[in-house]
Amino acid sequence: MPDTTIRDTSSQDAAYNYAYLDEQTKRMIRRAILKAVAVPGYQVPFGGREMPLPYGWGTGGIQVTAALIGRDDTLKVIDQGADDTTNAVSIRRFFARVAQVATTTHTGEATIIQTRHRVPETPLTDGQILVFQVPIPEPLRMLEPRETETRTLHALSEYGVMQVSLYESIARHGRIAKTYNYPVMVNGRYIMSPSPIPKFDNPKLDRSPALQLYGAGREKRIYAVPPHTPVKSLDFDDHPFEIETWTECCALCGSTESFLDEMIVDDTGKRLFVCSDTDYCESRR
Amino acid sequence: MYVAVKGGETAIAHSLDLVADKRRGDRDVPELSLDQIDQQLGLAVDRVMTEGSCYDRTLAALAIKQARGDLIEAIFLLRAYRTTLPRFGASEPLDTTRMVAERRISSTFKDVPGGQVLGPTYDYTHRLLDFSLAAAGERAEAPIAPADATHALPRVGDILQRDGLLEPPPSRNHGEARDLTRDPLVLPASRPLRLQNLARGDEGFLLALGYSTQRGYGNNHPFVGEIRYGHVPVSFVPEELGFAIEIGEIDVTECDMVNQFAGSHDVPPQFTRGYGLAFGHAERKAMAMALVDRALRAEELGEAVTSPAQDEEFVLAHSDNVEASGFVQHLKLPHYVDFQSELVVVRALRAEVEKRLEQAALAQAAE
Amino acid sequence: MSTTLLAPGLADLSHDAQRLFRGVLDAFSHPGRIVELRDAPAGPGTLSPAAVAFLLTFADRETPLWLEAGVDKQEVRDFLRFHAGTPIVQAREAATFAVIIGGGGEPFAGFAIGTDTYPDRAATLVIEVPALDGGRDTTWRGPGIDGAVRVAIDGLGEGFWPAWAANHALFPCGVDLVFASGSRLIALPRSVAVEA
Asked: What is the pTM of this model?
């Protein structure tokens, strides 16, 4: 395999600290990360800073990555599974600029993978860290808008409201119609939002050898799933959790096992399906 | 086809060039200077400094120029810069009785010690477009009475308070207020923290909320005790000196709103306060803030919390326009993975319903 | 005497702290795993390099520190105040971090365990031990551990593991531990059950 890591040292900004954040802010985030790892699935409040990228565009993930990243790291950034979507490119450029870090598109070469909306198809390994960008960290938020309430529900493990909501979906549709941001139970204690990944990716979170860190910048929360931790997608005995399937295969690599993106290729509405994970797809062609 | 999402790097580079080009506009038109923005669009500078939580006219003017006049974008730029600045500590509380006021009005008393000073205000302008401004030409300077910096300007509220008619302002024993830009907002919030949030809050959001209290959604019968605008000295105690020194002067607008309060079983009726403060000259913002501050005190004063403006969590969680703007606009980012998941399910659900309808139709035909 | 030279802190504030943090994060993510902290500074008094490295990585003005009498020496206080700006407190409940020797008696009593709504507001205790192996055999299970892991930390008091069982039972509240010896450490977050 050719060496695809890229090191950009040409445009580093001397005006800013290494990895943009000042050391005190990094320490604060690092303390929050340790507590998040100690209490898997619990959302730790942290003093999220105003970043030079807009809220909702990955400021939480960026702050977590900035607190983690060092000169020995190799960073991969994906959005919708792809390394070349505009926001992934923008975040990768940000770190290449402020942290002079090597970047890669290959899942296997990365030590830190920052992601929005996907978990890579290639299984992760011990020592890798997956950083999720999270828009709404609270899994109960759409059922109960008040933070003061949801905090109490988590404290009491009072999750009936979530069970009721899933059951209503079954009553209406004959199945749980939730397709992304599908809630999970972490280590049998906390219900957690896996961020808006498709439920197709939920099984990859369960007992993963990699460390999962979740950063929500606007909502100022960090949470974590340590390696080898049970992560169960919520379901019922008579309605077990299922993932999406396609009758088509990837038009580029022929995969029948990956998450497929649908594209409309002409005015008559002709469709084509291709892997959402660009690195996985390219490595198979 | 698939290449459509590729080439992100080049596309971004070109987009950056284009936006810079758009900002400059027609090269035959002279470029704006920061001084022009500071001097001639001063109220925009004031708003950007207030909601950007950073008192620096030049930086705010630069942000406005860079954002092509989009004030929320300018506020974002200023805040993102502000985060990278080192912190030396907190200043001493401003003493606004030491204000050299350019404007000072009270609507509760016909005359007050220190007098009513109308100052520069749009209040009594007739809103007729002044076409003389469309043409170039200098305007004569307005006569300005010398400001009296030697006399303290007592607050109207303090006079009412002496008679026990108005509650005293909150004591200082809250300790040092937490810094919202360093610590996450924890609810329920203390009043200093709420005021911090409102001061940074979006003017339009606070204006609508304040307005809603006047229309019955949490009415608190407000009167403008006083609005003052002018220069106030800022003092700071350096660690190595141990005493306060004046480090400069800033312009602020302060609004003390006086509100009816029916009293309770143990407390005789008295007036209560709502407080607003903004950098520069920003009366609309300061007044809206004072209305919302008072509305948010409903629980503390034993009033029923029934309206949006009284709902602390609702107000504080949605007041910040940099947060709101980012999250609303993040919908522009690709969501095709999530949408694909939805497509898969909606198609499956539709197939099931169609099958059911078909079978029902067949059964009906067979009868 | 008051003219003792202060021991040096981190040579490269940003990059050393980053590397040490990743070592500690590795330890917290894999309870029971012995993590060697490269370039841990020697530090003052009897503090182990691992404990010094931990404190210089995580402690600052915002994190009050409690020191057990055996570690609480003037040179240690001067060192931590100078390099980290950490306030040193007498009351256990005020401490974000603490340094304890051996963990005898009631090692966790009085430290903040967080609350049901904010379990993160709990202390992290650094326990100085003679060795991270060769002690009494224990089996650890929980998040971060693939099945079970055997750990034999040396020099812990008789009542230590029963006290840990009580702390673990408080989950999601409870303190988190770091065992330090030389330049190596093992982390034990509250989520882990220990069979002793």
From this structure: 0.90
